[in-house]
Design goal:
3 domains; 34% helix; 15 helices
Length: 541
């Protein structure tokens, strides 16, 4: 029966019967707001709903013996269980009024069934999208005669085109009653007997046997965070303590991807993953970073991990720190390349017939130099907890990692290195870094070096050398020097690059006057008099 909910129109029911005679309706699925599929034990009927006409139009009919069915709204795929044993699954894909038959596949049962009766239960199958791909998840309960230590979840990859293949096996290492959810691309398996859940990430490295990757759970078994049921009613009642909810109850029903319903208590929850506690559960920093980089809300947790591994008492070795930096910058580089490719395609001006390219999405896994500088490195150097050699080594390790994946290092990172070196009077190291171009040339860096001249005189020459190599920063340097009342230094710089014949005398004389140094003003004045005499034969301005 159908009923239209359209404002200002009569609500008259209309009915659609199955075309197949003597068929039992197993259920129905809305594949869009105006398309519905009837699933019977004899097949499927795909209809278009015409609300204005109060009728349905048959779009396609598929005859097939059906034991049970499953629908994944996210991917618009219906999965039908067929054959006597029920382990041959036939998927159908629905889109814009069309129904496409995908390749059928067979679920491998744990042991050869003794009788010809339904052996694959709907309870042991789930469909979910993981990392953008559709998978059929099969909870395989091993028989007691099996050598296996417990049940396992088998993942079959179901592509739009091509055959369905078994790609992953998740080892549960236990037996009993299980339920599955998929949250943030993680497969979460709940175990009723122990009242714990385990988490699997199929992106992490597993043991490959030539066709299938076998995974152990990423984190040790943990219980879902307890939920307190608030007491409803009058004020005298609500003042009582909330009642703890019974977790892993036999009345729990799970729906994909992340829904848990407690039928006995009348609650519906959405399962979520808390990343902060994972930091203390996964001690291998490289593996932890691999895990976090795949999660949606990961950035602040990643930055927190980076801060922790630079601080006591959890300070990591330089090799561990380097591994983490490399993993972060690998993701950073991938995003920059995708952004660059997108920009090139857009600038190339594709024809209107070509669909516009999708701009790459900047996920939270993209931790750029600004993030690292603001939240980790600048804070780390300010605390001054670590030995200065370790501090400098960490900064240089991050710069090395950026260079390794050919990401241009921002000047503020070099400035942080220089300031740290200066704070600890490591001028010899600063000199070496500049001499061997460990710190790349830039205008801001040259300006910073100029400002160090009073405490490290060779910095002036190092700055000049850098600016000469840049050959595009002469005006900026003069302005910086004049603003710091270093008028003679500015004049020496201009003479050094051969630009003293064309500069404005007024600018230098004004700066000398503001310095309130009569001898300085006289020196500058005499310099320009001599210049005028040489150029024009007269000292007058």
């Amino acid at each position: 029966d159908f009923l239209n909910f359209i404002p200002d129109s009569p609500q008259v029911e209309y009915t659609q019967e199955c075309k197949t005679k003597n068929a039992n309706i197993l259920g129905f699925c809305w594949t869009s707001s105006t398309e519905i599929v009837f699933i019977t034990d004899q097949g499927m009927e795909f209809y278009q709903v015409l609300p204005e006409k109060r009728s349905l139009k048959l779009l396609k009919n598929q005859s097939i013996n059906v034991n049970w069915y499953m629908y994944c709204p996210e991917s618009s795929v219906i999965l039908l269980s067929t054959t006597v044993l029920g382990n041959v699954l036939q998927p159908f894909y629905f889109k814009s009024g069309t129904m496409s038959k995908l390749s059928k596949f067979e679920i491998e049962l744990p042991a050869a069934p003794k009788s010809s009766k339904l052996s694959l239960s709907e309870r042991d199958i789930a469909m979910a999208t993981i990392y953008g791909q559709l998978y059929v998840l099969y909870l395989r309960h091993h028989s007691r005669t099996s050598n296996s230590t417990g049940a396992e979840v088998v993942l079959y990859h179901l592509p739009r085109e091509g055959s369905c293949k078994r790609t992953h096996i998740l080892k549960l290492n236990r037996t009993g009653k299980f339920a599955l959810n998929v949250v943030d691309n993680l497969v979460v398996v709940h175990h009723q007997d122990t009242e714990t859940s385990v988490v699997f990430d199929i992106k992490l490295k597993g043991e490959f046997d030539g066709s299938t990757t076998i995974h152990q759970f990423v984190l040790p078994p943990r219980s879902i965070q307890p939920y307190q049921i608030p007491v409803a009613g009058p004020a005298s009642v609500t003042s009582q303590s909330p009642v703890p909810c019974k977790l892993y109850s036999s009345s729990w029903i799970v729906f994909q991807p992340d829904i848990i319903i407690s039928a006995s208590e009348g609650y519906l929850w959405s399962l979520q993953v808390k990343l902060e506690p994972v930091v203390n559960l996964l001690l291998d920093k490289g593996k932890l970073m691999d895990f976090l980089l795949q999660r949606k809300e990961c950035k602040m947790v990643i930055l927190s991990v980076c801060s922790q591994m630079l601080s006591e008492p959890e300070r990591g070795s330089l090799s561990v720190i380097a591994t983490v930096f490399d993993k972060l910058n690998h993701e950073y580089k991938k995003y920059l390349e995708a952004e660059q490719s997108y920009t090139m395609v857009v600038e190339a001006g594709l024809s209107r017939s070509t669909p516009a390219p999708k701009r790459p999405v900047r996920t939270q896994a993209v931790v750029d130099q600004s993030d690292m500088y603001t939240h980790v490195l600048s804070v780390f150097t300010e605390k001054k907890e670590a030995p200065h050699k370790f501090t400098i080594a960490v900064l240089m390790e991050y710069i090395r990692s950026l260079n390794q994946v050919q990401i241009a290092v921002q000047h503020y990172l070099y400035e942080l290195v220089i300031k740290t070196l200066v704070q600890h009077n490591l001028f010899y190291m600063l000199h070496q870094f500049l001499q061997y171009h460990v710190l790349s040339d830039s205008k801001p860096l040259a300006c910073l070096l100029l400002s160090l001249e009073s405490i490290y005189p060779p910095a002036h020459q190092l700055s000049l050398d850098m600016l000469k190599r840049l050959s595009t920063a002469n005006d900026e340097i003069v302005e910086v020097l004049l603003s710091k009342h270093q008028v003679l230094a500015a004049l020496r710089f201009i003479r050094g690059i051969g630009g003293h014949d064309s500069i404005s005398a007024r600018k230098f004389l004004d700066a000398a006057k503001q310095a309130e140094d009569e001898m300085l003003f006289y020196t500058i004045f005499r310099f320009f008099e001599q210049r005028n005499l040489r150029l024009r034969g007269s000292p007058s301005f």
